[in-house]
User: What shape does this take?
Amino acid sequence: MAELAPCPECKSTHTYEMDNLLVCPECGYEWNLEDSQTATGELVVKDSNGTVLSNGDSVIVIKNLPVKGSSQNIKSGTKVKNIRLVEGDHNIDCKIDGFGAMALKSEFVRKA
Assistant: This one.
């Protein structure tokens, strides 16, 4: 019997297949095996439209984002060049002109 991928949410190893999805009985999370990073062995990050991002891509911010510790916001439409993908909640590391080094969530950007 083949070993199934652990749950990406809670890391439980008690996953099972249901149709074309993998399901975690402990936290209830469902995911597609082809979309998971464990299937390919590399980090898969998607933008707000579902387009897969890679290191070095340029993205555009789709929403005004408040910056912690600053009175300025990152405006919608700001282009960010040469991103770096990392694991975690804020999965994009980048430098934004006028703000410096930042960590962004991929759900607030689209590929340029």
Observations:
- The chain has a mean pLDDT of 87.
- The two ends are 43 Å apart (CA to CA).
- The longest helix spans residues 37-40.
- The first strand starts at residue 16 and ends at 18.
